[in-house]
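Re: that backbone. Tokens:
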């Protein structure tokens, strides 16, 4: 076991425990936030596993997850927006912590890998992961001002 695999295990364990707690407790809005957190924890873990095991295919899985995870969260946010008694939940602390984790993992892997095509893919994953997480969290917190219905 090397340091990359250990870091991936820590990220997956911590993020998985927080997401499991969020999914099993609370209202539906908290469960959707936990689903978003799951994406934000599994994607960096896949990147770390890819580096640790030397398997570039894991990076492709992380790219797919970074693209589809926030889209799924936005779909659930849209479905929950019609509930009249829906309480507005906010998890900006978790959102910024997940964004910082994603940025730290992407920067560390870019430094370890050096310049090249793999670095461009890592940066694209980082932008998708962080941007998608911020947009999805904003949608769950009550939407965007000036936008009707969301």
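Recovered sequence:
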């Amino acid at each position: 076991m090397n340091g990359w695999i250990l870091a991936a295990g820590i990220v997956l364990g911590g993020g998985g425990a927080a997401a499991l707690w969020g999914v099993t407790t609370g209202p539906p809005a908290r469960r959707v936030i936990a689903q978003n957190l799951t994406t934000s924890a599994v994607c960096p873990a896949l990147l770390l596993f890819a580096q640790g095991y030397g398997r570039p295919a894991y990076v492709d899985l992380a790219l797919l997850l970074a693209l589809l995870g926030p889209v799924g969260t936005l779909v659930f946010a849209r479905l929950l927006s019609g509930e009249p008694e829906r309480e507005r939940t906010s998890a900006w602390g978790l959102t910024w912590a997940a964004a910082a984790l994603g940025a730290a993992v992407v920067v560390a892997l870019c430094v370890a890998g050096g310049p090249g095509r793999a670095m461009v893919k890592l940066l694209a994953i980082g932008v998708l992961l962080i941007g998608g997480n911020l947009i999805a969290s904003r949608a769950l917190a009550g939407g965007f001002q000036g936008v009707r219905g969301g």
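The longest helix spans residues 28-53. Residues 93 and 99 are 10 Å apart (CA to CA).
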